[in-house]
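Hey L., structure's done. Input below.
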Amino acid sequence: MKGRWLNLPAMAIAGWCAILVLASPLVPVVRTSLVQPSFYIAAAVAALLFLRMLFDPKCRRGIVAANSEMRGSQTGRSWGPSFFDPSWGLFGSRLGSRALLGLRAILLVELILAALTNRGARHDVPLLAFTGLMIVMLLGLIHLGLNTPVEDR
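Output:
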């Protein structure tokens, strides 16, 4: 259980990012007052998660396992698993709980929509969506690293 104290607050911040990305086109006050500070908080959390994953040997196993699977060493294909793969796809069981996978799908759709509908020189909402998605992806890799047996390295 050591080191998992950051996972739930990080997931809550990613959920907050998803809510703000949804609310920003509808409520202008959200975009002007909440998006930029939330981006900085989410970026700090993403940096903390990245450093945790970088310096924790258990979490590095997740990177090694994902790398070998994505290269296709265990699937027999040279291009890796598909987008809808049951264990490695968008809702793959190896990359986190159902809540984490659902939040990842929501943030991915929001990122695509925010990038397509972004008008003007302000890129704060797509950046917030990207940062929230980065948090969820890092949490998925940490989950993979903590739940990968030592023999799979």
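The chain has a mean pLDDT of 80. Residues 60 and 145 are 6 Å apart (CA to CA).

-- N.
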